[in-house]
């Protein structure tokens, strides 16, 4: 029996318009509640952004945010891991020499960007960073840094990912969900590690867990659980890790498979 379901958001649970079938999900979630199964949102996005999608039930579910750096269960933080300040400074120093991407420093309190960043870029990230602070220098940040997000041209993502792996992988691990996004995360602080923590917290086994994903930052999570689904719209590398393939995110693929699991 499946006792926990973890879902990525962008490209997985959400369609391309950033929506999901709320009525259909409500029926599945009600069934999960009756079976005492846990629903877990596992995303690279920040907690303050994720809860907006689940306002009525946000204190009944668990959120893995910032690609595994923070876990919030039923409205209460139960785990977090942040970068050492010196490591943040070293990474930002390397990034300052590059012009291929924009940098967003993500902390517990919100996201931080330089005040020199153009307004048109800010508009593109407002959806993902509802709590945003402008700083003239990153040294002004007084927060626990959970990850550093980079926005780059989508067609350049793989090249920049490989480049960063060689330069800063001794401090941070570059991962990508695709879509022109690269996250610099703490070593071993990925979604798979967070799922393992959550399973232990609830006293569930990995065989009792299912997970859905579509990006490179979902690989460890998909590899860990007993029942894993890559979305039909996922790259082949993700499909090779997952045990099953779900319909696309635009076809409510997650809900299609969850209905099979719980009805």
Write structural notes for this entry.
This protein is an alpha/beta fold. The protein has ten helices and 14 strands. It folds into two domains: 151 residues, 3-Layer(aba) Sandwich (Rossmann fold); 101 residues, Hypothetical Protein, Haloacid Dehalogenase-like Hydrolase, Chain: A, domain 2. Helix content is 33%, strand content 25%. The strands form two sheets. Strands 5-4-3-2-1-12-13-14 form an eight-stranded mixed beta sheet, with helices on both faces. α5 links the parallel β7 and β8. α2 runs parallel beside α10. The chain is globular, with a radius of gyration of 18 Å. The model has no long low-confidence stretch (mean pLDDT 94). This is Sugar phosphatase. GO terms for molecular function: magnesium ion binding; phosphatase activity. It holds the Pfam family Hydrolase_3.
Which structural class is indicated by helix and strand composition?
Answer: alpha/beta
**What is the N-to-C succession of helices and strands?**
EHHEHEEEHEEHEEHEEHEHEHEH
Provide the helix percentage.
25-40%
Oligomer: single chain
Distance between the termini: 12 Å
Shape: globular
* Number of beta strands: 14
Under CATH at level 1, the class of the largest domain stands as Alpha Beta
Walk across the major sheet and give the strand order.
5-4-3-2-1-12-13-14
Q: How many domain regions?
A: 2
């Amino acid at each position: 029996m499946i006792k926990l379901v973890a879902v990525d958001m962008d490209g997985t649970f959400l369609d391309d318009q950033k929506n999901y079938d709320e009525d259909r999900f409500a029926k599945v979630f009600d069934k999960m509640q009756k079976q005492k199964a846990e629903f877990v949102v596992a995303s690279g996005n920040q907690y303050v952004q994720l809860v907006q999608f689940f306002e009525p039930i946000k204190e009944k579910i668990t959120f893995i945010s910032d690609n595994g750096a923070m876990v919030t269960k039923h409205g209460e933080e139960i785990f977090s891991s942040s970068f050492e300040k010196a490591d943040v400074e070293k990474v930002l120093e390397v990034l300052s020499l590059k012009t291929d991407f924009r940098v967003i420093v993500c902390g517990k309190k919100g996201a931080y960007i330089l005040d020199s960043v153009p307004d048109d870029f800010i508009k593109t990230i407002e959806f993902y960073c509802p709590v945003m602070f402008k700083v003239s220098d990153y040294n002004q940040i007084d927060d626990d840094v959970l990850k550093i997000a980079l926005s780059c041209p989508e067609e350049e993502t793989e090249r920049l990912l490989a480049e960063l792996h060689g330069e800063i992988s001794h401090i941070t691990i570059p991962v990508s969900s695709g879509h022109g996004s690269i996250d610099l995360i703490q070593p071993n602080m990925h979604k798979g590690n967070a799922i393992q923590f959550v399973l232990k917290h609830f006293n569930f086994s990995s065989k009792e867990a299912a997970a859905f994903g579509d990006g490179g930052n979902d690989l460890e999570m998909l590899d860990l659980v007993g029942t894993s689904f890559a979305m039909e719209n996922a790259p082949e590398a993700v499909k090779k890790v997952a045990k099953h393939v779900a319909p696309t995110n635009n076809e409510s693929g997650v809900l299609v498979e969850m209905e099979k699991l719980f009805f």
